[in-house]
Amino acid sequence: MNFLMLKERIKNFLKQWRTLRDMSLSIDKAKYAGLKLGAWWVIIIPLVMALCINFVFVLAFKVDLPYFAFFVLSAILPWFFISQAISESANAFIAQKALLKQGIFPKEFIPSSTVLAAFLNFTYGFLAVIPLFLLINSSVIYLLPILLLVVILILVFALGLGFIFSSLNVFSRDIAYFLPVGLMFWFWATPVFYSENMLAMPYRWFCLINPATYYVSACRKILYYALPPEPLELVLMLLISGVFLSCGYLFYLKNEPEILKRI
To answer: Is-contact 115 158, C-beta < 8 A?
Structure first.
């Protein structure tokens, strides 16, 4: 695909953003249809998991860290979004193949809308827990604009992953079955219930080469420590997000004809 064709695709993508918005809202609404607690599950699941980890590490292993549940919660919410975005976008083309064949909107809206629906859930959860962090440190309120930037970079990163895994799963349906195992390994390799500084070398390298580390660490630094990320960290997150989105989108566009044939 040459530059002019790519430019036209992006232009068409942006022109129909309302369709993408409506698709995302529809997916989000359908996800909680019939559930009494609805979107509250977005908050309940990570909160329960954080409390369980707090029980194990504080009461059982005697971790001496103030507000350890908040330490975990500040990182587990962005991780849950990344994990959910990958898991749900992987099946996007398969689950919505009837919609895909209609051809009334850009095909890349299928994985994009799935990631954006997961992002809505992430936003609900974040808005619900931010007041809790303000209670333990009111200085967090001054860092909310930076947190917004970090959240946008996480979304861009997740969109790139969504394009990659939604495409790969069309070529090999085994991807969807491998993902839970891969994501479980990735979860423990990401500093959610620990920080990268707690690890000695060479084990710390597992965190440093893990792109998710920079996003969860930035959220923790803002919410738990009430400190802004270093400028270099922000630049690094910007580069990671840009690279993943560009590579993911180009990977999808290159394989789009074959994807349409296989669906």
So the answer is: yes
Residue closest to 43 by CA, chosen among 135, 132, 147, 122: 122
Q: Is residue 185 part of a domain?
A: yes
Burial label, 42 (beta-carbon count in 10 A; 0-12, 13-18, 19+)? buried
In terms of Cα–Cα distance, which of 258, 260, 83 is closest to 165? Answer: 83
Distance in angstroms (rounded) separating the CA atoms of residues 83 and 133: 23
Q: Tell me if residue 79 falls in helix, strand or coil.
A: helix
**Total number of domains constituting the chain:** 1
For the chain, 263 residues long, give each residue's pLDDT as a single digit of tens: 566 777 777 787 777 788 888 888 888 777 765 555 555 666 677 677 767 776 777 666 666 778 888 888 899 889 989 999 999 998 888 888 777 766 677 888 899 999 999 998 888 888 888 888 998 899 999 999 999 999 999 999 999 999 999 999 988 877 878 898 999 999 988 998 888 887 777 777 878 889 999 999 999 999 999 999 999 999 999 999 999 999 999 999 998 888 888 77
Residue 25 belongs to some domain of the structure: no
User: What domain range is 258 assigned to?
Assistant: 75-101+108-263
Measured CA distances, 61 to 51, 54, 65, 99, 102 (Å): 14, 10, 12, 51, 56
Two structure tokens written together for 14? 């942006």
Identify how many contiguous H helices and E strands the chain contains and give both numbers. Answer: 12, 0
Give me the half-sphere count of Cα atoms (radius 13 Å) on the Cβ side of residue 249.
20
Nearest Cα neighbor of 118 from 80, 76, 160 is 80
Q: Which residue type does 226 have?
A: A
Amino acid identity, residue 167? S
